[in-house]
Write a structure and sequence with these properties.
Radius of gyration: 15 Å
Number of helices: 3
Bound molecules: inosinic acid, magnesium ion
Number of strands: 9
Shape: globular
Strand order of the largest sheet: 4-3-2-5-6-7
Helix content: 10-25%
Largest sheet: 6 strands, mixed
Strand content: 25-35%
Order of helices and strands: EHEHEEEHEEEE
Length: 168
């Protein structure tokens, strides 16, 4: 497999994002990570975040065991706590067609957060089907299927500490 982003590249960029997010939200920051793909990104992001931050998790399913989108988004696990009057940051692994994120932003905005922003480690703008706002992007990449650092192909490769390209 071809390595697209090394551990060092990822670590450097995640530290920058954490600093930028902290600057924008000096207090009251609540991160909502989207399982399973964002688990590694979230864990590095919070380790680079100084000061107070709280976390929650939700799970959605938009893909079957394949590399193509079904366009269907299903809520598999909901949050534990309310978002009302909190500064909420959605933490996602990758924005591809944008369908998952549009759905997430819509349902979370309806819960009355003080602010709602989104951080994605990766973005594939050439694949976008809907116009979706992403406030913090780690890396913009070409239209290639990537795995590692939380991202899977048929539930495998999430453990890789780097991001690699799978030829399909
Ligand atoms: P979207 O709804 O098409 O934007 O898809 C977002 C979700 O699709 C991500 O959270 C990933 O789970 C998955 N996905 C999209 N592209 C890739 C990829 O290149 N590798 C692994 N998963 C991907
Ligand atoms: Mg995902």
């Amino acid at each position: 497999m071809e390595v697209l982003l090394t551990e060092t590249q990822i670590r450097t960029r995640v530290a920058q994002l954490a600093a930028e997010i902290r600057r924008d939200f000096p207090t009251d920051l609540h991160m909502v990570a989207v399982l399973k793909g964002a688990f590694m990104f979230l864990s590095d992001l919070v380790r680079h975040t100084t000061g107070a931050v709280s976390l929650d998790f939700m799970a959605v399913s938009s893909y079957a065991k394949a590399t193509s989108s079904s366009g269907q988004v299903r809520l598999l696990k909901d949050l534990d706590s309310s978002l009302e009057d909190r500064n909420v940051l959605i933490v996602e692994d990758i924005v591809d067609t944008g369908l998952t994120l549009v759905y997430l932003q819509e349902i979370l905005r309806a819960r009355g957060p003080k602010s709602l922003r989104t951080a994605c480690l990766l973005s594939k703008p050439s694949r976008r089907q809907v116009d979706v706002r992403v406030d913090y992007v780690g890396f913009t990449i070409e239209d290639r299927f990537v795995v590692g650092y939380g991202l899977d192909y048929a539930e495998q490769y999430r453990n890789l500490p780097y991001i690699a390209v799978i030829e399909s």
